[in-house]
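hey m, so remember when u said the tokens were messed up on ur end? i reran from scratch. heres the input so u can diff it against urs
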Amino acid sequence: MNTNSTLLLSLLIFSTLLHSSLSDLCNPNDKQVLLKIKKALNNPYILASWNPDTDCCNWYCVACDLTTNRINSLTIFSGDLPGQIPAEVGDLPYLETLEFHKLTNLTGPIQPSIVKLKNLKFLRLSWTNLSGSVPDFLSQLNNLTFLDLSFNDLSGSIPSSLSKLQNLGALHLDRNKLTGPIPDSFGAFNGQVPSLYLSHNQLSGKIPPSLGNMDFNVIDLSRNKLEDDASFLFGINKTTQQLDVSRNLLAFNLSKVEFPTSLISLDLNHNKIFGSIPTQLTSVDLQFFNVSYNRLCGQIPVGGKLQSFDNSTYFHNKCLCGAPLAGCKLMTTRLESKSLPLETPPSTKHFAPGSRTLALKP
């Protein structure tokens, strides 16, 4: 082999090695952690692309930071993934997004090692069979902007410490088996006020009046066992867009409530709310409205969007009337007829003792 051939071969080998080095951008420590996670999950098909001979920045379900090439996102969803969340997820220090979603065979508690992920901003562990409590350590993830633990099998009470999350924009704890009261601290979120989703649980007691201090964009407390007053959640100066407290045991006077003009969805159905529907609601641009199955009375105010909803929005109340329900005059007639004593038919009249009953000839 002459000198030129040797030089050409050396350049080719160097070029191959250089290309291999440059193409594998993934941090080697991150790669090893990911491979341990794959093994802990019994090498599921959804992670088939996790080949140790390839660049882990190109693997399915992960993403790398464009500057540091460190793994900053791990999102596994909609696959057959039996077992528990591996402890190794806590060994990806640059992780900003962690998601295990729609994995019905994923069981066990919320992994404690998640507390080590100090850069985490987005945490979604939803539509799984995770059980146990909502861990208090989540309040230590100070950079969280989104926390979703919905559609699981979580039980116990809601930790009051979650109100310490200053950057939180949304908190989803709905569709679990959570019990006890809503923490009073949820009326004192530090920093940003998150949209609050606590529906479809077994929460009980009174809604803390402190929640009236918060201007929630969305608040959903529906399908629990909450009692008494909720009127303080409203306020004409608030910017709330969606409010749902349906299917509870709430009882307050709707007549005295002042509504945010920003409201687009209001659901109060299946409670014990009394009074009348305020005229002010005619100036609110509602897209969804339901006050059925309460104890409301009086005429439905005319105007705005209130007549655009069908009678299912208003039915099963004490004495609501007016479009789209029956007219108030007809309602009054019906109520009066119900209050009149029934006349006893002649054939069943009682006669005084000793008197005779006259038989009528045909």
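this time it looks ok to me. The chain has a mean pLDDT of 89. if urs says something different then somethings off w ur setup not the seq
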